[in-house]
Amino acid sequence: MKKYFFLLAALWLRSFAGFTQSIAINDDGSLANPHAIVDIKSSTKGVLIPRMNTAARQAIPNTKGLLVYDTDNNLFWYNDGTGWQSFFTADLFSKNGEAWLLKGNDSTRIGVNFIGTRDNVPIDFRVNNQPAGRIDPVRGSTYWGYLAENIDSTGENTIEGFNEEGITAIGYKALYSNLTGGNTAVGALALSSNLFGKENAALGYGALSGNTNGIDNVALGWGTLGQNTMGSFNTASGYLSLWQNSTGNTNTAYGSQSLFSNSTGSYNTGIGLGALGGNFTGNQLTALGAGAGAIDGLNNSTAIGSSATVDASNKVRIGDTRITIIEGQVPFTNPSDGRFKFNIQENVKGLDFILKLRPVTYQYDVKKQADFTRGVIKPDQLSTYITSAANDEATQMIRTGFIAQEVEQAAKTSGFNFDGVKAPKTEKEYYSLSYSSFVVPLVKAVQEQQEIIQAQNLRISNLEQEIADIKKLVQASH
Description:
Layout: H1 2-16, E1 23-25, E2 38-40, E3 51-52, H2 54-59, E4 67-70, E5 75-79, E6 84-86, H3 90-96, E7 123-127, E8 130-136, E9 141-144, E10 168-170, E11 184-186, E12 201-203, E13 218-220, E14 235-237, E15 252-254, E16 269-271, E17 286-288, E18 293-294, E19 302-304, E20 309-310, E21 316-318, H4 351-354, E22 360-362, H5 366-373, H6 393-396, E23 399-401, H7 404-414, E24 421-422, E25 432-433, H8 439-477
Parallel strand pairs: 1-2, 3-4, 9-10, 10-11, 11-12, 12-13, 13-14, 14-15, 15-16, 16-17, 17-19, 18-20, 19-21
Antiparallel strand pairs: 4-5, 5-6, 7-8, 8-9, 22-23, 24-25
């Protein structure tokens, strides 16, 4: 026993190394740090804190600063003079106001406990040490989502020299390349390529994802305006609406895939599933109804009704080829104010034109026309193309009218510039007739007939008078 006592004493004296105010515990003989009462150093061993169960810990009188390890809950506990506190309980951090626990905090109060800052400094969130969120009170901007708006640790965009304000970006890489303010992007990749475009709003995965310089666009839905680069003032709502638009301006698309293929066309309106979906470059087009549209490249045309398709510029089409009745309580009227008419000439052909017309009854292959309008068949295939619309109501209908090509030839033969024939200007268009235009030459024909009748009546009257005179002479001779 004495042997061990003297060994311990020797070690104790060695550790003092001439200092009585600090204690050095080590195995290399180094002196204690003069600012520490106990300086423990080792590269192979640690300090073992007293270990005990919960009951033993709680049996110790409150002693401020006392530290033990509880073997029941495997936690370090310290005594603050009034009770025991664990290093890993919400109570400690709630008391100090320094941390939120990974498994949540309890005893929180609205208006008292919060996550955030108490100064005018942005709050940041990171994932994989990459920007994943920021609320910036100075710029009035909010970013949320992995790499949203691509901000760096200083709060600036990763490209130097730009300081965006009024930004809202929520979703993976939303507004990732953005260099200017006033944009709102909600959804993964929404406005992800935007550079200088401003005041855009994108809601949905990939909405306006290709936009670089376009301004004042609104995109609602998956992929809406997805390939737009410089087009501005466009509004798209619905899955892939205005998807291929690149530089077209002031277009409005409502409905899944409406104006889907539009690239450079402007001032178009498509409402309904796939409305104006086949237009690429046409301008000032309006389509209302599922599948309503126009052949590409037209201007100032309108198609109204499901699958209605207009084939020429400056034309309005109501209903598709299956329509058999277009009804209204009153007839269509045309503006006819003489104050706006000029170069007025009385050169309308009457009988000469009307007598060349061939009234017929016929049936009309509406499916064949629809396929032709949609480009399914070419003009040189019309004579051999066979459809399966034999039982279609519109095809079975017996109609009364003229053949447009025959009317066209009759007008040419008569030297009449007749506006009732709408001849195709391109191989994609078809003939049509304006039957109301026949009223004017018919009136002219009636007038010409009336002149003939009046002349014949005068001649008959003269002949009757001559006969009466001859009868008187005969009677007088007897």
